[in-house]
Amino acid sequence: xxxxxxxxxxxxxxxxxxxxxxxxxxxxxxxxxxxxxxxxxxxxxxxxxxxxxxxxxxxxxxxxxxxxxxxxxxxxxxxxxxxxxxxxxxxxxxxxxxxxxxxxxxxxxxxxxxxxxxxxxxxxxxxxxxxxxxxxxxxxxxxxxxxxxxxxxxxxxxxxxxxxxxxxxxxxxxxxxxxxxxxxxxxxxxxxxxxxxxxxxxxxxxxxxxxxxxxxxxxxxxxxxxxxxxxxxxxxxxxxxxxxxxxxxxxxxxxxxxxxxxxxxxxxxxxxxxxxxxxxxxxxxxxxxxxxxxxxxxxxxxxxxxxxxxxxxxxxxxxxxxxxxxxxxxxxxxxxxxxxxxxxxxxxxxxxxxxxxxxxxxxxxxxxxxxxxxxxxxxxxxxxxxxxxxxxxxxxxxxxxxxxxxxxxxxxxxxxxxxxxxxxxxxxxxxxxxxxxxxxxxxxxxxxxxxxxxxxxxxxxxxxxxxxxxxxxxxxxxxxxxxxxxxxxxxxxxxxxxxxxxxxxxxxxxxxxxxxxxxxxxxxxxxxxxxxxxxxxxxxxxxxxxxxxxxxxxxxxxxxxxxxx
Length: 565
Fold this sequence. Notes:
2 domains; TIM Barrel; Rossmann fold; seven-stranded mixed β-sheet; 38% helix; globular; six-stranded parallel β-sheet; 22 helices; alpha/beta; single chain
């Protein structure tokens, strides 16, 4: 039976296979490649929500299929898909070229099938996006599951699109912006369905069409998203509290309850042995909320490593609470800079270096298995000399603490996030923007190297200086990791070879531009299928999914609400 909705994840640049692009290290600390083939977690929650209401949904990772084989023809594949609605994500702005290009192809192949966009960037640029002749609808907001359900119902019913909350659409030549949707009290009703995911793979006998990203089979990282939005105000972040107030409807951060987080962790641990990342700083919900999440996790003990995300250093009490409750855990901390004055310009002035080192000491004095620190290039006030001093500061941490502590440096690339303070009020934060519109960002993505793709430079560094500082810092940090036992000689040598090739713009396109700052295996440990997955749990979940397919439900329209803008 054909799906009612097909959700398509495009590559960053649609015709990337025909271009010679030196992407650089723009994806070195995330699971995906520079094609950005990892689709947003929202695809899974959208699919699960629609399925619970009786609709069939297929996720198509078009970017991944195109990566895996040059023989794969996207036009031929898409021609076979005939749902009621195509959905395309424009969540991350690096898809500003690929998303509209896929929409144009779909409209050429299936002019009668409507196309809807959604995601953070789609919300930010909804008025510009709806002007594209290939785009019929844009769903605005951080929680669009109920609105997508309402849209599908209208497509098969009376087509009263004015009743769909959070929808931007066209009637004739007129653009209509419907009232925003009312946000729920929590994220608990918007979960992913692991059984459904497994069942869809078996149904289509096709793992790679719905796989999250290229290396997922060997690096099957899993995550529980604890929050949408953020309580912090980092200058360059498009999901910060100030950014969301600027363009995202509703009040944020929107939290998942402690019990729901623990339930998702337990379900993931039934099918995989790999680390489970808790995405979002639990302290966004307050101290009591963070404690409640830890207590809930303690009630469902799992052998997987639970990885906590901290935007500023946790206090000793929180570390001790985590250590008492969870046997196997790790953490990620994002200081962004070693320089307290630069952190202040970035909006991260809440902590000193002394406090950060106290937190590191507390975590490594506990059972914390791994602690990763993340630093960035392209920040307000940062110079080339300051970047190299940052590497010196990391060395001092390597000297003081054991091998469980590692660090990563990445450029802020390719873009300062639209909607962020650094984008909306660029000059006051020392940024000089090269693109402001969706079309202008699309043009940057069509250039042939990552220096040309950057949508900004700063008062303190040109784009060329940021590129050079990135490679110089990476070279030094890679050597420090080797010397202080963070990585093997062989792994360090591999990073060196790739970095030199990328710096000189030699070699085959993708091989010479990935892993130039670090080896991704540092962050995402590879393993075989039997090491990564629990076969018994997968089979039980698959059996449950096949025997619990829901009937088509008729849901009252009043379950989807809108509010006046």
